[in-house]
Amino acid sequence: MFSVHGIPDTLISDNGPPFNGDDYARYLKALGIQAKFSTPYWPQGNATVERFMRPLGKALKTATLEGRPWKQELNRFLLQYRTTPHCTTGVPPSELLFNRVIKGKLAVINSKKIVNRHKEARDNEKTRQERNREYANQRRNTRKSDLQVGDYVLVRQEKKNKLTANFNHKPYKVIKKTGSEMLAQSKDGHIVKRNVSHFKRINKPREEDTDDEGFDYEENSQNNQPSISNENNVAPRRSSRIRRPPNRYGHEYPSNLIN
């Protein structure tokens, strides 16, 4: 792919094991490519790829069930997909890439010269994305998050069974916020990257729970004052009332006779 289209400046991928290895990092560094990763546990952050995988997986599954060669069906699917006008841009992907009409299985009635349609595709994409964003926000009752850098939060965890809590009890501190993506760090130095909807704000944990070098805590005057200790070591006062044996059925029985 790089030999045909050139070396890109940025390569976006998910957080799968193949993209977290040392070989992958050295390869990108040798080519001068900057690696970017999508937000974990948030498929909407990589919506373009995730949406394309739906029809692709359906085509491969259909070919397997019908006993047809999946490689041949894959090439046929890609040809049809690239020569069909996209529902968002209104322009076939092949025309945007090669600036010419790619012949498919459907006959071309009127052959015309293709002009640069990138501006048309960008305008259509912007209009459609705004419409889809408003629809999704209204359907999900989306609200603007007020989490800021320095807030203490809990991180949503994966459900293992019915008794698993929605959020992990370990507190984190927000150290960076970029759009809807946030980075939070725990007191032991563990950093997580999640969408803002995966965090829940909490009050500042107690000093004995958060006194660690991993956080930069704000000291106040009350915390700097020495604690007052009880120098006399007086034992706690106990009740001095007289204990009487229980009165059962109108008769008093000694407690040592009652089992």
TrEMBL record:
| Ranges annotated as biased composition (Polar residues) | 220-233
| Single GO biological process annotation from the record | DNA integration
Residue ranges annotated as compositionally biased, kind Acidic residues, are 208-219
- Show the GO MF annotations: nucleic acid binding
Q: Where is the composition biased (Basic residues)?
A: 194-203
Which portions of the chain have biased composition (kind: Basic and acidic residues)? 118-137
Give me the ranges of the annotated region Disordered: 118-144, 194-259
Please give the name of this protein: Transposon Tf2-9 poly
Organism for this UniProt entry: Paramuricea clavata
